[in-house]
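not sure who needs this but someone in the group chat was asking about Signal peptidase I from Aminicella lysinilytica so here u go. i didnt clean anything up, its just raw.
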Amino acid sequence: MKEIVKDVTVAFVIVFIIMQFYEPTRVFGISMQPNFHEKDYLLLSKEAYAKSSPKRGDVVVFQSSLVSFKGDKELLIKRVIGLPGDKVVIKNGDVYVNGKQQSDYYTEDRYTAGDISVTVPEGEYFCMGDNRQHSTDSRFSSVGCVSSSLIKGKVIFRFYPFNKAGKIKSI
């Protein structure tokens, strides 16, 4: 019996330590298709930005001001498009960062709706979903640019569905 108690205690300690640095999360909705789908299970690194900043192309999870039907503030998963100080322009379905047209090969429709010109404030990030036609993101005033303090972490691994399990790479 002592061995079982010891094993369970060690397991809890290990899980507690791991949870200080990583957090499992799940995808809700279609805003990140075709790269992430409803009910994908992902691993979030909470320490990814402890000594560095998000990079363009990183997939992040952040606390938004949007409120769910349960009354909770929603966590959103989006891709970093613009960094602090970048000028992001969306026109004629294309995205430009600092005057350079972005390749949107990873998006659902390769078209981005909107007519936007914004300079990303210091300490904030311009984030969009990969399914641009069905994503509430930094293009909308309800989300806007995302403060670094609201970013919970970087998506680093998908562990379900099993046939798509693996490390998540930035675009």
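also The domain at 2-167 is CATH 2.10.109.10 (Umud Fragment, subunit A). if thats useful
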